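Lecture notes, continued. The same structure-token format from the folding unit now serves as the input rather than the output. Read the line below as a description of shape only.
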């Protein structure tokens, strides 16, 4: 990867992109483990709750380590790619702290499952934001280093300019050499040598910068590079045949052959301007940008809803009626916003029986249940309500939000298959 790459930036970019992909997988596994822990601590024994919390903690340690490697590979933080991976690492760090606390406390004498559930509530919003940042990194880090990125586009444009210059130089040399002007002929051929070498060097860089592989983009650029390699051989022949003691007729034939190869390279690079641009937009959703934007918005709103539930549990446990009522109003609003966004995503992301559609429909179903439980919480958490039942209602709401978050995290991958 080092010897075949034209520069270390391209190598680092490929490693960065691969590491972000690894983090995507471990975040998905973590979401499953957190959801399992929430369920077990709601319905299982203290021992099972402890085991589930420990399993979630073990997974978050792996996910956090993966995100740290992304930060190391994808810097600097000033670039969007670096900022995205740093944001993911920060949120996973928060989740790691919370799950370490849960793994330590759950199962201890005097600590009931309810207290474990309260701690786990804080994980879901951090996980939603980590998934959002990592999803953004999957785009920003890919755009920076792969097909259609700025370096690829610049090299293609530069190659076209240089090939145009080379074609001009060939046309001039044919005129000079036909007119038997030895000095002008030699000078023009020297110019061809320089302009073809420059274009060949640029196109060689583009082979790496534009992604490689078997894409139409890569095939166009490789074909142009092959044409210019043939050109170099024919220029060497022209240098001999067009010298003072050479064969003038063969000299012209050589130069015409050079012109043909340059024309082929120009045609390949013109095709690349379309084929490489077709990959410049990262296709991350079944129906494009609208689906992608709704999934990202849903993750943001689910994170807010998770925060609102955590705050309301604290306020309502402390019997602060005014703060409890205000925070529950926040839950109502944030759950409604997330539910509305996910309902829109059901249509925007393609419908049908795809994994993408199933993820989003599952999230919508979870939030529909949440709305019912929020209504119960509004009653139980009122001044004349049942405080113990109030907290249980809110924990049930948190579980549904965690389920919806898990579904949307899956959707970030399943809806990105094209």
């Amino acid at each position: 990867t080092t010897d075949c790459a034209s520069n270390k930036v391209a190598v680092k970019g490929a490693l960065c992109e691969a590491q972000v992909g690894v983090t995507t997988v471990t975040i998905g596994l973590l979401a499953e483990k957190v959801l399992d822990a929430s369920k077990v601590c709601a319905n299982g024994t203290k021992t099972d709750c402890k085991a589930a919390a420990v399993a979630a903690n073990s997974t978050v340690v792996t996910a956090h380590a993966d995100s740290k490697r992304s930060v190391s590979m994808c810097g600097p933080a000033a670039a969007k790619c670096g900022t995205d991976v740093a944001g993911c690492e920060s949120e996973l760090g928060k989740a790691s702290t919370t799950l370490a606390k849960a793994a330590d406390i759950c199962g201890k004498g005097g600590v009931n499952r309810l207290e474990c559930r309260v701690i786990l509530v804080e994980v879901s919003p951090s996980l939603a934001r980590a998934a959002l940042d990592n999803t953004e990194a999957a785009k920003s880090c890919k755009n920076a280093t792969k097909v259609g990125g700025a370096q690829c586009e610049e090299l293609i444009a530069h190659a076209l300019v240089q090939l145009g210059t080379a074609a001009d130089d060939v046309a001039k040399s044919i005129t000079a050499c036909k007119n038997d002007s030895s000095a002008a002929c030699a000078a023009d051929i020297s110019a061809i040598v320089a302009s073809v070498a420059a274009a060949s060097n640029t196109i060689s860089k583009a082979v790496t910068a534009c992604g490689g592989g078997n894409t139409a983009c890569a095939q166009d650029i490789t074909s142009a590079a092959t044409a210019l390699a043939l050109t170099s051989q024919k220029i060497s022949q022209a240098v001999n045949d067009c010298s003072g003691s050479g064969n003038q007729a063969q000299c012209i034939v050589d130069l015409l052959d050079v012109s043909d190869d340059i024309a082929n390279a120009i045609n390949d690079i013109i095709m690349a301007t379309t084929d490489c641009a077709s990959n410049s937009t990262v296709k991350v959703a079944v129906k494009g940008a609208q689906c992608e934007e709704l999934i990202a918005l849903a993750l943001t709103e689910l994170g807010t809803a998770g925060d609102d539930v955590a705050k309301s549990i604290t306020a309502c446990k402390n019997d602060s009626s005014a703060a409890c009522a205000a925070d529950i109003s926040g839950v109502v609003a944030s759950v409604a916003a997330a539910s509305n966004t996910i309902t829109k995503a059901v249509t925007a992301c393609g419908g049908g029986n795809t994994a993408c559609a199933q993820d989003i429909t599952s999230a919508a179903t979870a939030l529909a249940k949440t709305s019912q439980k929020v209504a119960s919480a509004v009653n139980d958490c009122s001044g004349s309500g049942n405080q113990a039942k109030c907290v249980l209602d809110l924990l049930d709401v948190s579980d549904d939000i965690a389920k919806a978050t898990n579904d949307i995290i899956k959707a970030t991958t399943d809806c990105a298959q094209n």
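Point for the exam: The CA atoms of residues 42 and 184 lie 89 Å apart.
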